[in-house]
Amino acid sequence: MELIITPAGNCRCVYGEEVDLSVMGTLQIQRGSHVEPDQNGQWTADLSPVGGPKLGPFANRSYALRAEVAWLHEYWLLPEPGEAFQID
Description:
It is a single chain. This protein is elongated. By secondary structure, the chain is an alpha+beta fold. The protein contains 1 helix and 6 strands.
């Protein structure tokens, strides 16, 4: 699980249960996407909540979830230049 921590002390991450984030303080959790089936039984990952594209269709929900997380890590999780540093 990657955490991006800004100089102001805010933390951004793709939510997972590997780290108990509640120990860091008050949480504000926001949806990054919607993974939903379509009329044909295919799955899409709609990343519009974070300004991203719609990915898919995928044959399985698990493929859509993996694509969602990969996109979030590559395009959304990155800190703004000079804004933050990364802790792995």
